[in-house]
Known about the structure:
By secondary structure, this protein is α+β, with helices and mostly antiparallel strands. It has a domain of about 230 residues. The protein is built from 16 helices and 13 strands. The protein has an 8-stranded mixed β-sheet. It has a 3-stranded antiparallel β-sheet with strand order 6-7-8. The longest helix is centred in the last third of the chain and has 22 residues. It is globular, with a radius of gyration of 20 Å. The chain starts with about 40 loop residues before the first helix and ends in an 8-residue tail after the last helix. The mean pLDDT is about 90.
Amino acid sequence: xxxxxxxxxxxxxxxxSPRPAKALCSxxxxxDTHYIHYVKDxxxxxxxxxxxxxEQTHGRSRNLENQDDWYFGVSQQMxxxxxxxxxxxxxxxxxxxxxxxxxxxxxxxxxxxxxxxxTDDRFQPQPVIARNREEILAARVNKPTLSPNLxxxxxxxxxxxxxxxxxxxxxxxxALRAVEQKLGLEKLYVLGTPCVDNVTRAGxxxxxxxxxxxxxxxxxxxxxxxxxxxxxxEDGSTExxxxxxxxxxxxxxxxxxxxxxCFDYVNSLADLVVGYMGAPFGWQWIVVxxxxxxxxxxxxxxxIETQPVMSQGDRRNAVQQSIPAYDxxxxxxxxxxxxxxxxxxxxxxxxxxxxxxxxxxxxTRNYLFVKRxxxxxxxxxxxxxxxxxxxxxxxxxx
Length: 398
């Protein structure tokens, strides 16, 4: 990376003051710093610029003649993986935490931007710059709420560190890439997770109370490849709820408007992505986007087992049927939801086809949201690859 370019400074916004993106703000934290000077260019919801930032980050943008690029972005390789010795208390097996620890302890980086939780709320995010193994492990488990990860950018600048690992989701990483050259870093590594449907803390509470048998004891949850929401409770027990049994009529408005207008589910601008959506149940999906991502993955090759990605089934009918069902807030009786879940698990999409199902379902929903609520933004805000995905389906009238 070249030496830092002088950058403009502006006064950070005060807490709870209106943000430039207004209702679409994802609370990424950029506006909490003097980097707010760049918000009109950097914010994913004011200036969608995935294609040029892919070129800047990976050396090329997506090839729109390649359908895998539409869905999964620029990549060198994809695989399924899991740790042979999982980290206790990790949401899955702990691949993200392991990579961060190895990068820090090997000296590749001097700090890791990650998200712990506040002392009084297990789901309230608290971004930190981790400097040791214990601080990284304290950040394990996803925080399914809007998180101001970039609020620590001034701390990065003041620290004098030159090599940094940032862990984050798509909207945060787009803003980070937009100001990357202003940070004074010699090397920035980005480890991304796929992200969809985050909520405010109040929205999360409504989701838990509407969906789980014991909302106050949930430690973490995830929408998984078996078409069920998996909850883990404090006592170690698990609870599953079929997707089709969710009280959609009560939850339609719980997701943040930024998430309802996002088209970067797969974290296009990270160097390395670790999630679950393209892998068999119990495994993690890994996407290496560039050489930096390969450097990161190489550090844990002796800690993981891998297998090739696979794809099975056909998502298209299921996606087409889900569009009006979500649009009308259809909620099935639990017996019917469980039965449908069993059938779809047996004959439905798996592996990369499940990932496409999830992307299609959310992109069609989000396209309708933007078209109905922000029609003036529709053409510029929806990336070309997302338009191609949406064009495969018949949408209801706006």
